Amino acid sequence: MSRGRQRTGMVRSYTPTGGVARPTRRTLDDATLLMVDEEKELRGLEPEPYRVMELCRPGRLSLAEVSYHLHLPRTVTTVIVAHLVDSGHLIARAPVPAASVHDTALLERILDGLHAL
Amino acid sequence: MGSTLSDRDYVPDRVSQSVKIVVLGSFGVGKTTYVRAVSEIRSMHTEEAMTQAGEAIDDLSGVRDKTTTTVTMDFGRLTLTTDLVLYLFGAPGQDRFLPMVTQLMDGALGALVLVDTRRLDQSFTSIDLVERAGLPYAIAVNTFPDAPTYADTEIRDSLTMENSTPLVRIDARVRDSAKRALIALISNMLGRPHLETAP
Ligand SMILES: Nc1nc2c(ncn2[C@@H]2O[C@H](COP(=O)(O)OP(=O)(O)OP(=O)(O)O)[C@@H](O)[C@H]2O)c(=O)[nH]1
Ligand SMILES: [Mg+2]
């Protein structure tokens, strides 16, 4: 058996060391929208991050959708995506939380959207 | 796999903002049914490995010898406008997944609590959770055929609901009916009356 990388290397290499989580990782939500930075090279990416980039390239998806389409556990997806956000491959937009809905404009848009469905 | 997704699996290109609404309720109350009825695309789910204590496992090293369980979480999507998308997440019903539900509520715009009049007392856990999280919420009575019918005031009393909390009656299997719970929630957040008449 090779003494190189372990099979679990994908996950382990994205697991923060020293028990300190990367900042992005804590701010990634299931409903966070992910967008690809087209300028970034995919060469050199490991297979799992590469698959995430391939999936996201044609259009926008949330973190939860990426998990679903790639059949990856949510937490594993979060770790991979956090790394890709830190490297600039992905751009993440967090959902608008209740606490920051001061302007009614967003709520109005949601309501209009619901009525129109 | 990624390469086989169709255009409509993706969020439209101009959409740059998302909101999240969590659907809670006791075991078997109709959360999965609700998310499926309202979603514009086939409903989806995520999977997560959990410890017996209900904590999500995000560090795969060192947990292999602990007893783990897999929890599935349903979610759906609704494109509301050309630049806004709504994600609906069905929280797992069992109490042992509470830590995960708490995490799910983080970043949410609001919540819906589905209740079944045959088991009103089983709704308290969910109501407590959303209240503790400080989330705006609406109560949606999922109407099952053999369930006893109560007046709104009786339900409000049983659940010790604030008068300002919206109460709607829905059929979680029917999109237009299910949608009314979301409309009631958002209307209420806007400070609008949400006129609903009991069936
Ligand atoms: N008659 C009627 N049946 C419903 C309605 N909503 C759900 N059901 C049925 O109730 C059962 C449970 O519904 P689910 O959607 O699986 O409930 P759930 O809350 O996701 O259940 P757990 O995830 O196990 O907690 C299913 O057999 C549904 O078909 C409703 O509005 N009316
Ligand atoms: Mg379910």
TrEMBL record, chain B:
Secreted among the record's keywords?
A: no
Q: Name one GO molecular function term.
A: GTP binding
Q: Give the coiled coil ranges.
A: none
- Keyword set includes Hydrolase: yes
Quote any Pfam family the record assigns. ATP_bind_1
Keywords of this protein's UniProt record, alphabetized?
GTP-binding, Hydrolase, Nucleotide-binding
Q: Which PANTHER family match?
A: ATP/GTP-BINDING PROTEIN-RELATED (PTHR42708), GLIDING MOTILITY PROTEIN MGLA (PTHR42708:SF1)
As for family, the record states: Belongs to the GPN-loop GTPase family.
Task: Please state what the protein is called.
Answer: ATP/GTP-binding protein
